[in-house]
Amino acid sequence: MIKTYEKNFYFWVVAITALILDQITKYLITKNFQNVGETFPLWEGVFHLTYVQNTGAAFSFFRGGAGWLRWLSLLVSLGLMIFAWREKLSKVEQLAYGFILAGALGNGIDRFLFGYVVDFLDFRLINFPVFNIADMCINIGIIFLIYATIKASN
């Protein structure tokens, strides 16, 4: 029998690495920015680091829904971990679900601990909502999942 962590090795590596990166970046933002809304331009008018407390979902959707979103994050995270323990996934699926797990856990941790998610990546050139590494992970995971689905159907 294949050990759990060996069966879907890339899933666990991606999930743990991306989760650590997400939590470290959020910690650095909260320790280096005194007030919500404080911003630091890396490229004036294009890309800033801006401290935001998001009570909604990715990219500020469902603002004020942190209560039910924390439970959704937990359920998605547990479901993905159980799925990875039971099934042998392709490498692309491992990447997809690993990124999604990192995003769900990263934002879920924030929701349980603080009641909001720390966002800080602020692309002003296109007036995009402020987001974080966990949000990026979820979107990267979805892209990999779409790719895996298309690849499997060919």
Give the mean pLDDT.
90
How many H/I helical runs?
5
- The helix fraction, in percent, is 55-70%
Instruction: Determine the structural class based on helices, strands and strand pairing.
Output: alpha+beta
What is the molecular shape?
Answer: globular
Q: Give me the Rg, rounded.
A: 16 Å
The percent range for strand residues is 5-15%
* Number of E-type strands: 3
Q: Report on the biggest sheet.
A: 3 strands, antiparallel
Distance between the termini: 30 Å
Q: Please give the order of strands in the largest beta sheet.
A: 1-2-3
Write down the secondary-structure element order.
HHEEHHEH
Low-confidence stretches: none
Describe the fold and architecture.
This protein has about 150 residues and is an alpha+beta fold. It is built from 5 helices and 3 strands. Strands 1-2-3 form a 3-stranded antiparallel sheet. Helix 2 runs parallel beside helix 4 and helix 4 runs antiparallel to helix 5. The longest helix has 24 residues. The protein is globular. The model has no long low-confidence stretch (mean pLDDT about 90).
Quick recap:
With 154 residues, the protein is an alpha+beta fold.
Show the helix and strand layout.
Blueprint: H1 4-7, H2 9-32, E1 39-43, E2 47-54, H3 66-86, H4 91-114, E3 117-123, H5 133-153
Antiparallel strand pairs: 1-2, 2-3
Task: Summarize this structure as a short list of keywords or feature phrases.
154 residues, alpha+beta, 5 helices, 61% helix, globular, single chain, 3 strands, 3-stranded antiparallel β-sheet
